[in-house]
Amino acid sequence: MNLDDLYRRVIMDHYKNPRNRGSFDDDALKIELNNPTCGDRITLQLKVEDGIVKDARYSGEGCSISMSSASMMTEAVKGKTVKEALDFAEHFSSMMKGETVDFGDYEDIEALSGVNKFPARIKCATLAWNALRKGIDIEQQHK
Amino acid sequence: MISSSIREQFPILNQNINGHPLVYLDNAATSQKPRQVIEAVKSYYEWDNANVHRGVHTLGSRATDAYEGAREKLAKFINARSTQEIIFTRGTTTALNIVASSYGPSVVGEGDEIVITQMEHHSNLIPWQQLAKKTGATLKYIPLQPDGTILLVDAEKTITDQTKIVAIAYVSNVMGVTHPVKELAAIAHRHGAIIVVDGAQSTPHMKVDVQDLDCDFYALSGHKMLAPTGIGALYGKKALLEAMEPVEFGGEMIDDVGLYESTWKELPWKFEGGTPIIAGAVGLGAAIDFLQEIGLDEIHRHETKLAAYAEHRLSEISGLSLYGPRNREVGVITFNLGDVHPHDVATVLDAEGIAIRAGHHCCQPLMRWLEVSSTARASFYLYNNESEIDLLVAALIKTKEYFAYELG
Description:
The complex is a heterodimer.
Chain A: H1 3-6, H2 9-16, E1 29-35, E2 40-49, E3 52-61, H3 64-77, H4 82-96, H5 122-142
Antiparallel strand pairs in A: 1-2, 2-3
Helix pairs in contact in A: 2-3, 3-5, 4-5
Chain B: E1 16-17, E2 20-21, E3 23-24, H1 35-48, H2 58-77, E4 86-89, H3 92-107, E5 113-117, H4 126-135, E6 138-142, H5 152-158, E7 163-169, H6 181-190, E8 194-198, H7 210-213, E9 217-221, E10 232-236, H8 238-243, E11 254-257, E12 262-264, H9 278-294, H10 296-314, E13 320-323, E14 332-337, H11 342-351, E15 354-355, E16 357-359, H12 364-370, E17 375-379, H13 386-407
Parallel strand pairs in B: 3-15, 5-6, 5-7, 7-8, 8-9
Antiparallel strand pairs in B: 1-2, 4-10, 9-10, 11-12, 13-14, 14-17, 16-17
GO biological process, one term (chain A): iron-sulfur cluster assembly
Family (chain A): Belongs to the NifU family.
Organism (chain A): Paenibacillus monticola
């Protein structure tokens, strides 16, 4: 077991210098999600216009894996279409199962592939992506 | 003294995890099982397995004797007046839920009070929350001191003539606090209330005498005291249990069944609908034998010593916050390592072969009171020793260095 497989430099960078951390003042779509088994929680806000994720912010409490994953996720989906964002979420799930996936122009996320070797931590990494899925789901129901 | 050879009785301890000898410090979650317990369960299935209380055949008698024999052992172990006061359950959660759902509505009504603390495990909190909601009663909390202890003077103020039930853990699964249950029982009784004691964390580690405590109900889990998972018990004073309605209806618990009316077996069987957890009870009986051969006082002394050593060694790590009282009597130590999240701590420790718990420990209200989202917890049992605490401390220092470097 090599800890450096898990705690890659890019992950620690997102943990230390989170991107898109915070919240929107206006009533943008808001999703609150907990991980009841460990106490991690995330509040994700999404601005979706014309089928495009215009902006995303998150706040919450959690370990380096869950928070860095949230930072990367918000960065990755910004400017993407809803479908592209959902595809990313799918890719992420596949990566957690140990499959090799290509995130195209956003390679940072691939640093989280090492989580696959730490089964107890997969739920940390997927929290933000589950919030994204839930958010898009709500957004699409509103249409 | 507990001999270091005791570890040889626990086959699971003799293995490497991630290239290091296993250091198991998650005993408040569940304990490991000695060979004696594993063999008792195995032997039961290989020689005696049958359903209880019904077969005329030899195996049926053996299984019944083994099951009821375990009940006798447990009754003696916690000094119940008789085996009629011992109901086998799936564990502490089920036991507490029986009290809340059967006894609760018979005495609690609108305007009445149920008194607990913010430190309770979810299993000794939510059943009372639900009961209060259903009956219109008020759920009241005895305030906690900064170290997690409670003052009897605060208990006196919180418990009133309106109070019908006081429910509290004997030992906290997070803070390593031992609550003054005997004194609380006296206060509750003076106001005409009953006291329910969550004994999940006390029964494995110290001598428990339910008559001396004068508690009305006492719940415990087998798996935290060397027995298999899936077996636990509810102790209740006979008069209270007799007045209560069963919670589960079906086979095993009936006396006479008609088309429109049925009657129940006598205690304790009226609360044990369905085929019981026979092998689990057999394992619990073997676990009690094992614990008694060593002696609960001896186990308690051993763990108090380990707790003192751990408090001392952990407090040497700068940036580490220890929660709970100093000079605790039980081997449950909760802490946080600076800014490093408990999950990250637990992952690095696991890479060193050390098993600890990270999270909210089924105590979300307590986490809010501590103003943290989660904590790390090391908890000891009779097979742990000081050199394992040294390994824990060394691994924590390594964790700190690793993240100081990574986090810059």
